[in-house]
Design goal:
globular, single chain, Aspartate Aminotransferase, domain 1, 7-stranded mixed β-sheet, binds ligand KE4, alpha/beta, 2 domains
């Protein structure tokens, strides 16, 4: 009895596409999505009981492995105190203080319930603070599904091959200018033309939604300088890279200080949390201290705060990111060796616990390079790895994630599977 197929058939009766988020639907790779029953450490187990080494990690949150004992204990203790108060609680202050202490550019932070809420609120705040309407994003970057961002976006929009989305009013889309990523000349040109009308530039400082692409040397600093010249707000969308690529996120790696940063994923430890924070003078514009409205019934939920705070304690420990980077390096270097041995054009990149892999002989520097990737080979590789019990992101346009529980034995098992799968 294939529980998965019957579940997916039933799911499609009640849920559009049978999933609650499009990228889970396997549209980018074909076949039926796996329904997961349980997860522990580096593993997930599907409803048929099959084990997988997991490189999605819930798209980032599971940096300390699934069902991490410390996170579970914190949530169990919080459950016994009540699920939600709709009133301030100490746990919110604890997590806010942790984030402000760990990220120097963050003077104050507001909790929300998803990355989308964080980026949507950050844009509204930048518009309210500057009195301007235009924003600039980058082709292939994904900042969640708020109207302003569904213009040449990445992730599921890219995976499904749709240019944007119906339902986004032209008047809204027209306020979003899209520029190629890693092209400072193009950005400078746009800013020279309309910079004084631009409320904010929002960027994934390392992209993770058009596969993983690192910023060119000086690119982020160039963006910082342009924002300073035109008094535009620089927003680093670190929903994916925050506490993932380094303790201080991508802004620590490249030593560039944004005005606002958005977070999600890791800071919730697996529970629904997003956050935005940054300069005191800008954050003070957020209600109730300022005029820019933003709210949420479950923002700062005590269970989510407990999970997030436990996770911040874990990632704050000495050596956490050094070990994580080491394991990710073993994985990608091993995959590269497997591809080289098989004579397959392949390249990788990685930072901390995040990695990208391309079926092309050079790593991508921008969106246009992705067209040269052999997407069909990726699809065959994906399914062959699945057969061998390795679960990669079901799209050539996503990044991969390693946890602190991916030990040498897990990496070795992955590489053994890859030796066969690379020839699929
Ligand atoms: P959420 O609203 O999905 O919590 O966060 C939106 C978001 C914002 N910014 C960045 C840089 C992001 O990567 C995301 C969400 N990432 C995708 C993975 N590519 C979430 C997976 C999904 O959509 O199901």
């Amino acid at each position: 009895m294939d529980n998965n197929h019957s579940l997916f058939t039933k799911a499609q009766q009640f849920i559009p596409g049978g999933v609650n988020s499009p990228v889970r639907a396997f549209k980018g790779v074909g076949g039926e999505p796996l329904f997961i029953a349980t997860a522990k450490g580096p593993h997930m187990y599907d409803v048929n009981g099959k084990a997988y080494i997991d490189y999605i990690g819930s798209w980032g949150p599971m940096i300390a492995g699934h069902s991490n004992e410390e996170v579970l204990e914190a949530v169990h203790q919080a459950v016994d105190r009540g699920l939600s108060f709709g009133a301030p609680a100490e746990a919110e202050v604890t997590l806010a203080e942790q984030i402000c202490q760990m990220i120097p550019s963050i003077d104050m932070v507001r909790m929300v319930n998803s990355g989308t809420e964080a980026t949507m609120s950050a844009i509204r705040l930048a518009r309210g603070f500057t009195g301007r309407d235009k924003i600039i994003k980058f082709e292939g970057c994904y900042h969640g599904h708020a109207d302003s961002f569904l213009v040449k976006a990445g992730s599921g929009v890219l995976t499904l091959g749709i240019p944007g989305s119906p339902g986004v009013p032209k008047a809204v889309a027209d306020l979003t200018l899209t520029v190629p990523f890693n092209d400072l000349e193009a950005l400078t040109e746009v800013m020279s033309a309309v910079g004084d009308e631009v409320a904010a530039i929002i960027v994934e400082p390392i992209t993770g939604n058009m596969n993983m692409i690192e910023p060119a040397a000086g690119y982020l600093q160039g963006m910082r300088d342009l924002c300073d010249q035109h008094s535009s707000v620089l927003i680093f969308d670190e929903v994916m890279t925050g506490f993932r690529v380094a303790r201080g996120g991508a802004q620590e790696v490249y030593d560039v200080k944004p005005d606002l940063t958005t977070f999600g994923k890791v800071i919730g430890g697996g529970l629904p949390v997003g956050a935005f924070g940054g300069r005191h003078d800008i954050m003070s514009y957020i209600a109730p201290s300022g005029p820019v409205y933003q709210a949420g019934t479950l923002s700062g939920n005590p269970l989510a705060m407990a999970a997030g705070s436990a996770m911040m304690k874990i990632v704050s420990r000495d050596g956490f990111y050094e070990h994580l980077s080491q394991q990710t390096g073993k994985l990608v270097n091993g995959l590269q060796a497997v591809a080289d041995e098989a004579g397959v054009p392949f390249s990788t990149c990685h930072k901390g616990g995040m990695f990208g892999m391309y079926f092309r002989d050079q790593k991508a520097a921008g969106f246009a390079d992705l067209a040269e990737c052999d997407e069909d080979h990726f699809k065959r590789f994906f399914h062959a790895m699945l057969v061998h019990g390795v679960y990669l992101a079901p799209s050539a346009y996503e990044a991969g994630f390693v946890s602190s529980k991916h030990n040498d034995d897990i990496i070795e098992q992955t590489l053994i599977a890859a030796k066969t799968a690379i020839r699929a």
